Amino acid sequence: MLELKNVSVSGLNDDIEIVNNVDLSLEEKKIYVVTGPNGGGKTSLAKAIMGIYPVSAGRMYLDGEDITNETITERAKRGIGYAFQAPPRFKGLRVRDLLSIASGANDESKVFSLLADVGLCAQDYIDRELNASFSGGELKRVEIASILARDLKVALFDEPEAGIDLWSFQRLTETFKKLNEVSNTTIVIISHQERILRLADEVILICGGKITDITGPDNILGDIDYFAEPGCYCPNCFARR
Questions:
Q1: Domain containing residue 40: CATH number
Q2: Structure confidence by residue, pLDDT tens digits, 100-114
Q3: Taking CA 213 as the corner, what is the angle to CA 169 and CA 55, rounded to the nearest 5 degrees?
Q4: Per the structure, how many domains does the chain have?
């Protein structure tokens, strides 16, 4: 279980608090979808869990052990993984190499299976280098495959649908379901997409750096006010109107 107690995050600017006093408990073998207006603190909270952003206040625990001050590497060794909204590029590194390193085994059949799970033809991609020749969507899918390759306790996905075509998006949602069925991984997905929201055991609504609601997907999707324009209609903002 991952627990956040009174966690605040200032990101890279200590003068601006992006996440404010968050309490959250995430259980194993559950899918959580984090949603809310742009700039609300969703990605910053996920990056704090991964250790990319330091916690400015509060504590963070994984399976009862305090990981608040641990580095990205230390958290990765504990089984926390993060798929970026805009993945990094690696010149000279082949897809085969990346997925073999991620899975910890030089198993070509495993690499083929991982690429199929994210909608890529293995024969076309396995020996390609992860460089500028990849489109943003292709790179995104390879990165997601690298996360799926690991036996993680907590898997964080930042808008995994970005840049992915509809066919591959359908395959991706099926892959999230499969991962949830066959593993005990806590899956956290930042997304606004209805298909991904419907995968959730719980939807976490974040606005203004605070968790304003934790509810089921039907409650979010059934209430048009949550996505009304202009502005945010979450309980926190609606109370101020």
A1: 3.40.50.300
A2: 988 887 888 889 998
A3: 85
A4: 1
